[in-house]
Task: inverse folding
């Protein structure tokens, strides 16, 4: 907990310099992508892949607030994706597709779940915190599997995408892409303000030395709990977007594997930089998407059945590859970029 | 006699059969520097932990300026004016020296549940933090990440952080431990200047510093106070000499 985190802290001047070009390039790339996609010949595929990247980026970024800035390893963050997704799915199947109803319900439910589970989990530290957040996540997972009216184990199709003031604007994949882009950009700006604020500074302080923070008059619990609630609400919003993109909800949204993937995305991108989490999500999802094809191309010397098996078992390459990146790129992808700046 | 600023009444702490603090009663007058000395393992740091609230007390009372604070958590005690430093340096290594102190100023000036305005640009916080740093002689080093300060500078930073909470009572756990001669001199001078503004309880092994600064000295041996007196009285006390000072040159 008291490790000298290589990123995300320090004075604001150093911080500002560190921020550098990465976030601008990142958001510029997302902004330009739809125009390039139109020429790619597979516009629908590119848009849907990048939309998924942005939604997971949003979820990973929300986790980065508590993991990267608060050193709270929550292993149940996918629960909030599930809450957001089920709020959309359940309300839509009851006939309220209006986003102005769905999103507030999703946020309120996420906040409540975060408040209750956070208040309990945050009384523990370290491994116990990891285990108890995992337990709460699993609790919600099994609750979802038992919702027979909403598909149980199998999940269910969401009858329609959310409507904005009654209009079916978001039915268009391009409009939905821009909606996700705006959400990501706005919440990035919001989180950037939060981590630099009085509140964010106290949160960063509790990450480095909670006893010191108590000895100058702070009760770390209050700040950690508030961060947990903010983070959960943002992940809940990501869940709303996810249900809208896939037009499908299922308990699979909140498996513990999904929580683990979110942690991995944050660590892969670099803890405590916010945009690092988005980059980590992008790297993770794009690798997952293209590694099989890459392996197929790279295996041209192999016999056909070997090649097929290699491609089928692409995860055997994916796992070690991720581990190597995390081992050799301390500070994740953002750490690599930063080293590039100085060298 | 005036009301004491800090009073310990029959304070106890035991781990199983091991009694670490054994019926300690002390009364520290406002505006004085009260030193607590004793051989290693006498329970001095435990006593500071009990006063500051880092460790709960088995029985007995801690009274700050007339209020019983025995059951309050550490952060509440700080807000009532009881600040402390740590024997093992405890700072925020990733933050600049200035931000370490500004964090303490922020704790008692307004709510920290403010989510938007940038905290490191708050002039009021930074100015007061700068003045605390200047008091301990670290004014020039404000922008340096605390983790990169020298050991002596970190000790000074601890003091600045404690001062920034504007304490009525300052608990100092070996502020001179491991500092070089020049740094020690500076800390001793700082403490001398602070004596007039607040009540200080000092644990220290450096006897020169203790006897030049203290108004009162208590000697702790095996968790028990064997004597409390003026520095001159302590030097002359045969029981103290036998228990502790015999092998020290004073």
Result:
């Amino acid at each position: 907990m008291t490790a000298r985190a290589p990123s995300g802290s320090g004075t604001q001047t150093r911080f500002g310099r560190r921020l550098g070009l990465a976030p601008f390039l990142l958001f510029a790339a997302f902004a330009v992508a739809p125009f390039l996609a139109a020429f790619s010949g597979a516009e629908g595929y590119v848009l849907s892949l990048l939309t998924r990247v942005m939604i997971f980026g949003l979820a990973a970024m929300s986790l980065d607030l508590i993991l990267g800035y608060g050193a709270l390893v929550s292993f149940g963050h996918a629960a909030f994706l599930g809450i957001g997704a089920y709020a959309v799915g359940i309300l839509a199947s009851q006939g309220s597709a209006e986003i102005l109803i769905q999103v507030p319900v999703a946020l309120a439910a996420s906040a409540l779940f975060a408040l209750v589970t956070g208040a309990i989990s945050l009384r523990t530290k370290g491994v116990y915190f990891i285990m108890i957040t995992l337990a709460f996540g699993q609790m919600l997972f099994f609750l979802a599997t038992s919702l027979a009216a909403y598909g149980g184990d199998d999940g269910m199709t969401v009858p329609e995408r959310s409507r904005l003031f009654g209009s079916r604007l978001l039915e268009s994949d391009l409009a939905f892409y821009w909606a996700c882009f705006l959400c990501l950009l706005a919440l990035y700006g919001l989180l950037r303000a939060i981590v630099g604020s009085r509140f964010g500074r106290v949160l960063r302080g509790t990450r480095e030395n909670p006893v010191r923070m108590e000895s100058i008059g702070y009760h770390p619990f209050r700040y950690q709990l508030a961060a947990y609630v903010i983070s959960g609400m943002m992940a809940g919003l990501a869940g709303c977007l996810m249900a809208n993109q896939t037009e499908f909800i299922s308990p699979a949204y909140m498996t513990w594997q999904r929580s683990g993937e979110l942690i991995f995305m944050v660590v892969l991108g670099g803890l405590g930089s916010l945009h690092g989490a988005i980059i980590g999500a992008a790297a993770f999802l794009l690798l997952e998407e293209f590694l099989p094809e890459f392996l197929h191309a790279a295996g041209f010397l192999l016999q056909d059945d070997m090649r097929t098996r290699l491609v089928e078992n692409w995860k055997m390459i994916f796992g070690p590859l991720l581990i190597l990146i995390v081992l050799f790129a301390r500070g994740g992808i953002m750490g690599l970029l930063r080293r590039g700046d100085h060298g | 006699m005036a009301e004491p600023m800090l009073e310990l009444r029959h304070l106890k702490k035991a781990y199983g059969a091991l009694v670490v603090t054994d019926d300690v009663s002390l009364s520290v007058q406002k505006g004085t520097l009260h030193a607590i000395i004793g051989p290693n393992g006498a329970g001095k740091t435990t006593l500071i932990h009990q006063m500051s609230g880092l460790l709960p007390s088995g029985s007995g009372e801690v009274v700050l300026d007339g209020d019983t604070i025995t059951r309050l958590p550490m952060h509440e005690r700080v807000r009532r004016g009881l600040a402390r430093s740590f024997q093992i340096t405890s700072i925020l290594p990733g933050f600049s020296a200035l931000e370490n102190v500004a964090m303490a100023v922020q704790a008692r000036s307004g709510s920290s549940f403010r989510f938007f305005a940038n905290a490191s640009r708050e002039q009021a916080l930074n100015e007061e933090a700068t003045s605390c740093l200047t008091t301990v002689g670290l004014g020039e080093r404000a922008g340096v990440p605390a983790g990169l300060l020298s050991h002596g500078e970190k000790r000074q930073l601890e003091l600045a952080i404690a001062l920034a909470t504007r304490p009525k009572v300052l608990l100092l756990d070996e502020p001179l431990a491991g500092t070089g001669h020049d740094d020690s001199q500076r800390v001793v001078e700082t403490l001398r200047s602070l004596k007039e503004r607040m009540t200080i309880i000092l644990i220290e092994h450096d006897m020169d510093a203790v006897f030049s600064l203290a108004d009162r000295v208590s000697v702790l041996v095996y968790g028990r106070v064997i004597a409390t007196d003026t520095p001159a009285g302590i030097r002359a006390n045969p029981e103290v000499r036998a228990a502790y000072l015999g092998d020290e040159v004073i």
Residues 24 and 227 of chain B are 11 Å apart (CA to CA). Chain B touches chain A at residues 52, 54, 73-75, 78-79, 83-84, 86, 90-96, 98-99, 103-104, 106-108, 111-122, 143, 145, 147, 161, 164-165 (CB under 8 Å). The longest strand of chain B covers residues 4-15. Chain B is about 35% helix and 25% strand.
